[in-house]
Design goal:
Layout (H helix, E strand, L loop, with lengths): L2 H6 L6 H15 L3 H9 L8 H14 L5 H27 L2
Helix pairs in contact: 2-3, 3-4, 4-5
Main location: cytoplasm
InterPro entries: CNOT10
Family: Belongs to the CNOT10 family.
């Protein structure tokens, strides 16, 4: 598959990854942030999945009892910067095609 085809192809979520995400959500709803983080950490192979990165930052913040605000802000800023970069990259490709 070429680079262009790879960029356009949706990222496939495996059944195992879906189960891990659902387990993480269930643990989060039970306020069991340690178990939630363990499940999310197993999704670290999804390095380009902004939802995983965002959710991990949120859970880490909850786990810290909302004390690590500066780190949380840095993590969210990093996620936002990635979104901006992706959008900019898409816009530039569209304008130069």
């Amino acid at each position: 598959m070429s680079d262009k085809e790879q960029e356009k192809a949706p990222e496939i979520v495996t059944d195992q990854e879906r189960d891990l995400a659902q387990n993480a959500l269930a643990e989060f709803k039970k306020n069991n942030y340690v178990a939630c983080l363990q499940n999310i950490s197993k999704l670290d192979s999804r390095t380009n999945d902004l939802k995983v990165i965002h959710n991990k930052a949120v859970v880490e913040y909850y786990k810290s009892d909302f004390k690590k605000t500066e780190q949380f802000q840095k993590n969210l800023t990093a996620v936002c910067n990635q979104v901006i970069y992706i959008n900019l990259k898409s816009t530039l490709k569209f304008n130069f095609i």
